[in-house]
Amino acid sequence: MDLVLGEFVRFVDEKREGYITKIFDDGTMGVTGSDDFEITTTAKNLTRVHGHSNYIKEREPVKPTITQTEDLKDVGIYLAVVPDSNKASLVHFHILNASENQLLCTLNTYKTEICRGEYADFIAPYTFKKVYVASLPELDNWPEFIFRVIPYTTTNKPIIKPIQYKQKFKAKDFSGAIKNISLMPQAAWVFRIDEIELKIDVEKLKESFFKVKEVQSTIPKPAKEIDLHIEKLSNAHANLSNVEIIEIQLNYFNKMMDSAIIHKYSTIIFIHGVGNGTLKSIIHKQLGKHSHVKTFMDAYKEKFGYGATQVIFK
């Protein structure tokens, strides 16, 4: 009997049932019951519960239109973590391929200097596949997740580099609301696996730092609140690709950051919106490495929700 992650099963030798949350090998599995306690047992000691509503099935490839939902404004590769529809303490990890490329994907977990292979398979364009199941109450004991992805296409395109994504989850990663995703039938916490490479003009930054007085007279002061929504930055945004939109937003973000530093601002707010979190994630990573930034945080949640970031300079 071929049992899979997330399947609802019953023990043969005792009155107990639950979900398969780990598969150690072909004959050994971990089953989590209603008490959130995982028991290791053999596959022979388990039987499938017929008629029970198991987790969502993977779809056949169906290419969506970009205007289908807001979530598809930024096409890419994502990790979607979905709460179980029957047992809230369980979450199901999926690789969501919202690109036109086929993906060769592997997942390894790393804990206490031991690396274990969890998943390896192809994922077709515009589909998703389940790769792991875990219990949220045991989040502190989760391993580090290491995803490796190789995109593949037969069309003529520039070289697509392999992707490696590492994540050690913390409670704050699941503190926000789950989002509806057009390619999946249930809402999920979404994490971008493929990152858009930032292009920073280092020489231009150096010039602005060493010629402050000269530049101050030529660069106007920025507003205290900077709106990065693409419709505010370009009148032709409807004809732009997703990558072009991100580049425009990041270029304007960097320009306003430079200007705020030159004019010795103590703080500035960037309104990036919520969306699928990609722009916010890239901005936060850049701010975390910025030598002139003291700290940053969500700005006035009662006014912006989670759609704006306040930057405090040194």
In short:
Helix content is 17%, strand content 34%. The chain is of the alpha+beta class and 314 residues long. The strands form four sheets. It has a five-stranded antiparallel β-sheet, with no helix packed on it.
Characterise this structure:
The protein is an alpha+beta fold. It folds into 3 domains: 8-48; 70-192, Smr-associated-like (Immunoglobulin-like), CATH 2.60.40; 202-313, Ribosomal Protein S8, Chain: A, domain 1 (2-Layer Sandwich), CATH 3.30.1370.110. It has 6 helices and 17 strands. The strands form 4 sheets. It has a 5-stranded antiparallel beta sheet with strand order 4-3-2-1-5, with no helix packed on it. Strands 10-7-6-13 form a 4-stranded antiparallel beta sheet, with no helix packed on it. Strands 9-8-11-12 form a 4-stranded antiparallel beta sheet, with no helix packed on it. A hairpin with a 4-residue loop joins strand 2 (17-23) and strand 3 (28-32). The longest helix has 21 residues, at 242-262. It is elongated. It starts with 7 loop residues before the first strand and ends with a strand. Residues 53-74 have low confidence and may be disordered.
